[in-house]
Structures are given as C-alpha cells and as structure tokens.
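Q: I'm building a small set of examples for a reading group on sequence design. Run inverse folding on the following structure and report the sequence directly after it, with nothing in between.
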C-alpha cells in the first residue's frame, strides 16, 4: 500500500510517498480503507521534531492521527462494528491507503468522508480545553486564532452550552466567525482594546501560538484562566499547555450527537491528494485556515 512517511525530522520536503506493508487490526482495533485523513498542526509539529511527549516518534515514521473510511478488518474483542461500516476516528499513520484505528464511531447519515476526517482530534481537543479552562454557561470565552478546525469546534460547542464567545482571526475570516455565533475582531494592532470593548473576558484559549499569552493573562486577570494548545512556552508564564488527549471515544460520541442535531459543522477549506501532503503541511503551518484541511486517499 501507499503511505506518507519521513525518515528524518525537518521541513515538509522530508515527507515521502512510499510503498509499505499493510497494517492489520490487533485486538481491540479496527482497520479501515482510508477515504480521507485529517491534517492537524500536531502532524507537522511531530514531523519537525518538536518535543511532544504524548507522541513519541521512532524513525522512519508515518504521519496522521485522524481518518474516515470503510472498515475492512475487525480485531479480536471488538463489538458493535462490522466490515463495510463507514466510520471516522483516530489511530496512527492515517496518511495511507489503510490505517488502524484505536477509537472510532459510525459516521452520521449524510456526512461525507472528507468532512468526517476533520472531526476526531479537533472535537476531542475542543472539548478538553473548554473543560480545562473552566468556563461556564453565562460567561465569556476569548478564543485567539478562532477560524481553524479547533476554533470552529470551540465556538460552536461553547455557544451550544450557553457561553458567549469572542474570536480573533484575520480580516478575511470575520464573517465566518460571526456565522458561528462569535463576537469577532482581527488580531492586528490594537486587538486587546477591541476585545475589551466587546465585553469582559472570563477565560481565554490560545489556539494559534502567536505570542499572545501575556495579553490573554492580562485580559482574564489570571493565568489559570488561560489554556494554550500551540505555545510550548506557555508554562513559563504559569499558563497551562494542553497537549495530552482525553477520551477520544467520548469525544466522537459527542461529535456524532452534535453533528446529527445540526449543532456542529466544520467546513473543509481545501482537500489534497496523498502526493500533496507536503503542500498540505505548508498551508497548515501558515495558518489563516477557515475550517479544516484534509487528504483524500
């Protein structure tokens, strides 16, 4: 089978499309014929060799955590899923024609593989950081870098819980944020004062790693009310860096519920082929994403 692999840490040019042995479903796992794989910032962070304790790497390594596809092997002890089912979930080395998933759920009716592939890690992350930052219904949450996949999920989940959201993003994505129910502003000069004019901030999330931790602490008045998923230096300012996943099966179950009720939709901004994985990483790292980027297999 074909898969994306890298033999050394570095830029997107280290990604190679190679022929590899097919993986197989071990006990408690399933294998899918991948139809689409989600492109997440953690993918290029791992490829660059950034220190991410939750994702140890042994070279040569595959790439990708999220995927959607059709079940074609069911491991020993697995119940509730059959060969031929359409599922989405999280596993390893998902930039490939076949991948083994460790957590999965059946895709809601009407959901395309491309869109489904963008949900697993994104929704788990969104649910986790909303919980960790401790924001409650009736309060206001500031989301820095809100137009990407995690930001899109955070805004919708928070609004569904009765939380007011303020989102920062580029000028081109202001209407997109408003469409998700957020009070929106750009992140260029003067953004802190613009946020203050929008209302009191009870908690804040840093999703872009753009060097705004001090300002988020200033706006909330307490480093314990700020969580970052993108700035590895956040702990130096007493701000929590959240990088270890919680329960992916629980997150997938909530995603299915929200999608089925029309409360969650994350658009696919751009799709790439496996041969375009390097371009997908380049674009993801550049930011300014509206929704998700995925590989179509």
């Amino acid at each position: 089978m074909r898969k994306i692999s890298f033999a050394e840490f570095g830029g997107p040019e280290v990604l190679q499309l190679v022929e590899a042995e097919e993986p197989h479903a071990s006990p408690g796992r399933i294998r899918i014929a991948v139809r689409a794989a989600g492109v997440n910032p953690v993918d290029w962070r791992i490829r660059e060799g950034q220190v991410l304790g939750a994702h140890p790497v042994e070279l040569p390594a595959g790439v990708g955590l999220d995927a959607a596809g059709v079940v074609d092997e069911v491991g020993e002890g697995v119940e509730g899923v059959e060969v031929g089912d359409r599922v989405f979930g999280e596993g390893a080395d998902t930039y490939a024609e076949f991948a083994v998933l460790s957590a999965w759920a059946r895709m809601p009716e009407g959901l395309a593989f491309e869109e489904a592939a963008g949900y697993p890690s994104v929704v788990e992350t969104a649910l986790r950081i909303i919980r960790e930052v401790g924001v409650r219904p009736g309060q206001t949450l500031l989301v820095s870098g809100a137009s990407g996949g995690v930001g899109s999920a955070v805004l919708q989940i928070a609004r569904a819980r009765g939380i007011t959201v303020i989102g920062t993003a580029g000028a081109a994505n202001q209407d997109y944020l408003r469409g998700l129910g957020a009070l929106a502003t750009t992140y260029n000069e003067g953004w802190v004062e613009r946020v203050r004019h929008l209302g009191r901030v009870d908690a804040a999330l840093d999703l872009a790693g753009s060097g705004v931790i001090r300002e988020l602490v200033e706006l909330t008045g307490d480093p314990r009310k700020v969580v970052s998923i993108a700035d590895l230096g956040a702990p130096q300012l007493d701000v929590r860096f959240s990088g270890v996943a919680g329960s992916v099966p629980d997150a997938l179950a909530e995603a299915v519920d929200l999608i089925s009720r029309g409360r969650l939709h994350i658009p696919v901004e751009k799709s790439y082929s496996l041969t375009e994985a390097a371009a997908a990483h380049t674009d993801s790292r550049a930011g300014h994403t509206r929704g998700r980027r995925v590989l179509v297999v």
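DSSP finds nine helices and 15 strands in the chain.
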